[in-house]
Specification:
By secondary structure, this protein is α+β, with helices and mostly antiparallel strands. Helix content is 15%, strand content 19%. The protein binds zinc ion (ZN). Zinc ion (ZN) binds next to loops.
């Protein structure tokens, strides 16, 4: 179960604030509110979650399966 990275450094595209966040492994996180500027982040087109769009590491399903089935 621990063959993936759990923490992703999420970078806000608006204010560049970075925060290390533990990713949920049983679902995909669609929304994230930046703790610095309160911008509500949503995934970019083609990405399944905010971690794939803005994180330093893709979400666990991508790391394990190479794709994300759970969130389509
Ligand atoms: Zn921000």
């Amino acid at each position: 179960m621990d063959k993936f990275i759990k923490f992703s450094e999420l970078k806000c595209p608006k204010c560049d604030y970075k925060k290390l966040i533990e990713m949920p492994t049983n679902y995909c996180q669609w929304f994230y509110e930046c703790t610095a500027c309160k911008e509500l982040l949503k995934p970019l087109d083609g990405d399944c979650c905010v971690f794939c769009s803005y994180g330093s590491v893709p979400c666990p399903p991508i790391q394990i399966n190479g794709s994300c089935i759970s969130c389509k």
